[in-house]
Each structure stands twice: as structure tokens, then as C-alpha cells.
Amino acid sequence: MIIEKIFNNNAIIAKDSGKDELVVMGRGIGFKKSPGDPVDVSLIEKTFVLKRNDASEKFKALMADAPAEYVALSYDIIEYAKQTLKARLSDYIYVTLTDHLTHALRLHEQGIRNDNPLLWEIQRCYPREYAIGHHAMGMIEQVTRIRLPEDEAGNIALHLINAQMNSSGNKIADLTRQTQQIDDILNIVKYSYNNEIDEHTVSYERFITHLRYFFQRSRKQESEESVDDFLLKQVRMKYRKAHHCVLKIEKYLDLKLLDEEILYLTIHIQRVTQRQTE
Prior knowledge:
Blueprint: E1 2-8, E2 11-15, E3 21-25, E4 46-49, H1 53-63, H2 68-85, H3 92-109, H4 119-125, H5 127-144, H6 151-164, H7 172-193, H8 202-220, H9 229-238, H10 240-253, H11 259-272, H12 274-277
Antiparallel strand pairs: 1-2, 2-3, 3-4
């Protein structure tokens, strides 16, 4: 493994025998070294590959400004998230989360609070990602001795949600709007049935997941597989209240839903409200 670029004493870019570029971190790994020197593998603490060239270039630019300990901290949070979510995350998460964390800590030092107006909605719609964000707060405090405000748990969650959608990292505004829309849809269901939704059920989690990917498909103009017209008619007749709720959602979204989307939404709403309809 050969050093290609040195950011500071503790962070470098290196190339392995397969000619892959790696971000390599370790105490003193860049000390008194020059590009072209071999990497002292005994000093390696963390290493990862950014396979997308655009993400790699943005990360290099970021590394020139971000403290190495923040880069390492972001890496640890991302690894924890991968293990917890058991999901692939876009390479851009290394760029976006490191940049966000650096910015958040600098704002805190200046006494500026970065509020998240959708904190409650994120807790409700994305409980797993929010829990990871909350855990990350403890990781940040352990390294920096800084306890960031609770809003940051929501901000970190948004970056994790975005990374699961393979976004370029520039769509947080879209994701914020989507979070608000999911919350509005949940409220439509809640008031249609005049009852609270149990947010601690598998049916609820599946409903939220479906809504997340529904918005992703809508943005990419993708559709589900076509469904049998007879099946759709049967579902409409059997679950009339759930189907009526879907029509309210369609009106709220100001969007003509495909038959397959109507079918799946009707089934999900029936399941998530089953206790209220029994």
C-alpha cells in the first residue's frame, strides 16, 4: 500500500495493489511521510474505499478542512449504522455526515443552535434511524466532550435515511418534505379511523417502509408490477374504509395513484388499523 496524498499526521489517501484508492486513518500514519512512501500498516486504525469517483473527490476536498478526529468519528457512526440497519449506505454518507458533523460542532462552539423543526416527525416516521442518531450523540460526546442538542439526533437520522436511498447527498430538502408528507398521511389514517395508530407493530414499520419507497418510486417515475384487476376489486370491496382512506391520501398528494399503489396502500392501511376495525 502506497501513500498518494497526506492530509495530516493521522489521515492519508493510499493506493493498494489493486489500484483502489483508500482513506486510511491512524495515529501518526502520515507523520514525516511523503507521497510515494509505503504505508506503515501497523499504524492503520481505520480504512475504507470510496468507489464512486465524485464522492471520492468531494471527500478529498473535505478532508483538507475537517479535523481528522471528526472524520474518524463520522466513520464510526456510519459503521455502527450499517451494522444496526443491516443496509447498504451510499458512499456520499462519508462526505455528507462528516461535513455536517464538522459544521454542527463549529456552530456549537459559536453558541449557535441548529434546530430541527421536524424532530418529532423523524422520531415517528424513522424510529430506527433516529435511535442511531441518538446513539451517535453519545459517541460524539465521548470523543469531543460536547453534548449537542437533541435536534442533532434528527439531523443525523436524515443523513442516514438519505444514504439508504442512494442519493447524491444533495436531496435533504426533498427528504424533509417527504418526512412531512409521511406524517400527514399518518394523520389522515389516524383521523379517518378516529383512533391512534400503534407505532410499535410490524405492520406500522412495513407501512412506513412502503411509504418511503413509494416516494422514491414516484421521484424516479417507477411503478410496481401490474396487479390483477379482479384482485383490486376484491380488496376495494373487502376493505372499504381503508380504500376510502387511500382516496383521501390521493387527494392530499394531488397525484393520480396507479392501481397497484392503491392496492398495496389499502392493504397496508387495513393491517395497520386492524385493531380499530376488529
